[in-house]
Design brief:
Helix content is about 15%, strand content about 45%. The chain is an alpha+beta fold and about 140 residues long. Strands 1, 2, 3, 4, 5, 6, 7, 8, 9 and 10 form a ten-stranded mixed sheet that branches. The chain starts with a helix and ends with a strand.
C-alpha cells in the first residue's frame, strides 16, 4: 500500500512540476503607448503567464492567462528614472497597494521603441527588503501609439 502511494505521489509530482514550470511564459514584443486626457502617457505591457501555480487542474492542462502592467509618465522621450514614472499592476491605480515602490533602473524611450531595464524589491514574510530582482517585463518593446 505504501509502495503504491509513493509511486502515485511521484508521478503526480512529476506531472505538476513539468506542466508549467516557469511562471513567465513570454512577454509580447510590442507595448501600447496612449496619451491620456490629462496629458500623461500610459504604457501598457502585456505578457502570457502560467496559471498552474495556484490551481492544480490548470497546471495539468497548462492554462495560461494574459497579464498587463502599466507605466504612467509625463515624458515621451529620453531616459526616465523611477522618479519620472509610476509602475502599476492595475490600470489607472496610482496609489498603494498597486504601484511598485523602491524601483531601480531606467526606461529609455526612442521614437519607435522603449527599453525597460528595472529591478524591483523582493520582501520576506516579515516585510523586510531582502534583495532586488529583475522586473518581469524587462526588455525592448516596439511602441504602438
Amino acid at each position: 500500500m505504501i509502495r503504491f502511494f509513493k509511486f502515485n505521489l511521484g508521478w503526480l509530482t512529476l506531472i505538476l512540476v513539468s506542466c508549467c514550470g516557469d511562471y513567465i511564459v513570454e512577454n509580447h514584443n510590442t507595448a501600447l503607448l496612449a496619451k491620456e486626457e490629462s496629458g500623461n502617457y500610459e504604457l501598457t505591457l502585456t505578457g502570457t503567464r502560467c496559471v498552474g501555480g495556484h490551481d492544480p487542474i490548470s497546471a495539468i492542462f497548462k492554462s495560461k492567462t494574459e497579464e498587463n502592467h502599466y507605466i504612467y509618465t509625463t515624458k515621451r522621450t529620453g531616459t526616465l528614472y523611477p522618479d519620472d514614472f509610476t509602475l502599476s499592476s492595475h490600470k489607472g491605480e496610482l496609489k498603494a497597494p498597486y504601484p511598485y515602490e523602491n524601483i531601480k533602473g531606467t526606461l529609455v524611450f526612442n521614437t519607435q521603441d522603449v527599453f525597460i531595464q528595472l529591478e524591483v524589491p523582493n520582501y520576506n514574510k516579515a516585510g523586510e527588503l531582502t534583495e532586488y530582482v529583475p522586473y518581469e517585463f524587462n526588455g525592448k518593446y516596439k511602441l504602438i501609439e
